[in-house]
Amino acid sequence: MAILPTPAPRGAAGAPPKPTSLKKLQLSRPIATHAGMTSTLEFRQATARQLIHFGQPFTLRVTKTGPDGEPTELATDFLHDRMILWVEDLTGVGAEELEQMHPSDWLTVCKFVRDMFAAGN
Predict the structure, then answer these.
(1) N or C: which end of the chain has fewer CB within 10 A?
(2) Which residue range forms the structural domain that includes residue 95?
């Protein structure tokens, strides 16, 4: 039996809160959103809230170690069922709309969210 993440609080219209402190990501192909066609996703700054409600959206695994046994190379395994919740919450774009993305755009979005952790953004 799978444990599902706690649903995030929603705004008055059932949508995630409108993003603030935006970072923009350009998509290679436009998607249809409630606001019309867009080729740009705007992300608000992530907080601990997303981790608490949705869990970690990826795992890292060691693929190579140095002579001292310390990791020298890591690979990312994205947890797409969690990632969609993060992206929906951080952009205000619904899951059904995000699912229209080309797979290469989706992987770019996943890497963008992963890099938010490293950059402290």
Answers:
(1) N
(2) 23-119
